[in-house]
Amino acid sequence: MPTPILQVKDLHTEFLTDGGVVKAVDGVSFDLYPGESIGIVGESGSGKSITALSILRLVPDPGRVVSGQVLFHDQDLLQISGEEIREIRGRDIAMIFQDPQSSLNPVLRTGFQVDEAMLAHGKSRAEAHARTIELLKQVRIPAAESRAKDFPHQLSGGMRQRAMIAMGLANAPSILIADEPTTALDVTVQAQILELLGDLNRDLGTAIVMITHNMGVVAGLCSRVLVMYAGEIVEQGPVEQIFENPQHPYTWSLLRSIPRVDALRHERLRSIEGLAPDLLHPPAGCRFHPRCPFRIEKCFTDEPRLQEVAPDQLAACWVTMGRARKEMGADDLIDIRPGAGSGVRKGELTD
Amino acid sequence: MATSVTYPVPGPGPAPALGTAGFKAPAQASLWSDAWRRLRRNRMALISSVYLVLLVAVALVAIVHTPYSYREVGVATPYSGPSWAHWFGADILGRDVLSRLMVGAQISLIVGVGTQVFVVAVGVPIGLLAGYYKGWIDSVVSFIINVFYGIPDLLVAMILLLLLGPSLNNIIIAIVATRWMDMTRLVRGQTLALREREYIEAARSSGAKPAKILFGHILPNSLGPIIVQATFGVPAAILFEAFLSFLGIGVQPPTPSWGSMAAEGLAAIRIAPHMVIAPSIALSLTLMAFNFLGDGLRDALDPRQKR
Description:
The structure holds two protein chains of two kinds. By secondary structure, chain A is an alpha/beta fold. Chain A has 13 helices and twelve strands. Chain A has helices at residues 48-55, 82-88, 100-103, 110-119, 125-138, 144-147, 157-169, 187-204, 215-221, 239-244, 249-256, 320-328, 346-350; strands at residues 6-17, 20-32, 37-41, 63-72, 75-76, 93-96, 175-179, 207-212, 224-229, 232-238, 307-310, 313-315. In chain A, the strands form two sheets. Chain A has an eight-stranded mixed sheet, with helices on both faces. A four-stranded antiparallel sheet of chain A has the order 2-1-4-5. Chain A is globular. Chain B is mainly α. Chain B has one domain (32-71, 86-301): Orthogonal Bundle (MetI-like fold), CATH 1.10.3720.10. Chain B is built from ten helices and no strands. The A-B interface holds A 56, 58, 60-61, 86-91, 94-99, 102-109, 116-117, 120-121, 143, 145-146, 149-151, 154, 164, 167-168, 170 and B 10-12, 24, 27-28, 30-31, 134, 196-199, 201-209, 212, 216-217, 220-221, 223, 303.
């Protein structure tokens, strides 16, 4: 096993609000290996973006990384000075954002902005400019020379995202964190961008952390996946394994809610019952229990820890889908209201 | 953006046939040229610009030549009205009013533009720092701004001029001291809003230094409002200088200022009304021109108006 390039250990990020402390990231740990591509999936508010921002210490106010370690080349990114982390941003670890429309400065020419990413790390203007054209070609922007002179509003959404990726790649970082890079794009452009990221991952050996709520994106690009729920990782493992045999009921519900072309014509779209939990007052016990069809008494009171449920696959669940299938008939379950499979409805009385 | 103007399409490839409709302006024809195009369509702003260009020309000419010396007494009969020899008549001491107006234009423009240069130099950096770093810096800056707003303008200017003495430089200092807050507050507000934009986050994530973010990203995005604010600041400063000179604590004789000329004329308004009317009209036209230009710039630089 090679050594990880990035190790996140027991990361806790909190937001101090008027209503109290929101634990947006609550004890997240994972390793990223060189050249690997991992996906972090979860609903809005599950803490996946904040996890990514915490790695580069870019958490917006009033957020604060309160504990944990982010180890990169044997140094803890959470402990080094502001100047040192600034050197690492963009040079070793780059980030691309969700909305290419608003991630490019509207008053500066696109090529100039790609130049800037290199100027921040000690290249000369001339060197940077030559490489910008090369980069724009690499991300397959046609007529790169003239596009570099365009302002962002003169480019299409897909081209803007390509320009963002070019900015991300400018200093040949070893890690690229992509925060929902395809969400704002239409489907065909999404596919092109994913293909591009896949190629870059393969050809340049850039490790990619892909943050998304889209299981399809993960399936297409990543080798490993982390599933987050309410600030915690609830399941992780190799992509094929997770897709074929999810062990956490949340992962199972997520995969089950992907619309299928071969579904019966009048079948209703499946969703996950209930709402994402209020992180100001997270539920006791397992955080998913208020929505879980397979919860048992223990889930209401005791919080499960991640444990190995199959080789390389970890899940934080007292029941796990193996048991839910065998004992609760999960595969035939149509009614997936909370407690439907297990018959434990107690929660509905107290909730 | 329906326009009959045809732009050449940039970039490589064969040149487009003449008359090919330009759906998109070429890269260079962005932002500023868009604004310029919109400004030109605003008739009042255009007329004002022409007036101001003429005013600047007159002020420049006055450096090397005026019809008569602005300070020579008795070139005409005191109190005499407009004539061919003296278009705007003469004042109490028989000095030529037109020549004095021309020199007065210099004073007004120097004070108006000069104060805004300093207001920008002071307000922009302070506003950027306060808006970007927030926290105690912002608290201190906001407190000082509020204190300055609390004290009457005139009091601040009078005290400063009494302490420093009434020279042209000191008048500018005094006006800056009473007018820097608007610009600072504007830039602070802009920065507060812009710092939360995704492209600022993106710049930060690519390792940009704070100075780069402030002056390379936030400042260019606030340039429109800053220009408009400065343009409106010019007539305010000119008026304030005229007011100070009217009170006698501004530009000192024999140097003419439109304000002091009006004050002198006021004493003789019954027998020589042109002495009040001439500087007042010059002042009013100039103030109006700057305000119309400011209005036009505000509309032209507003990115939401893509006409």
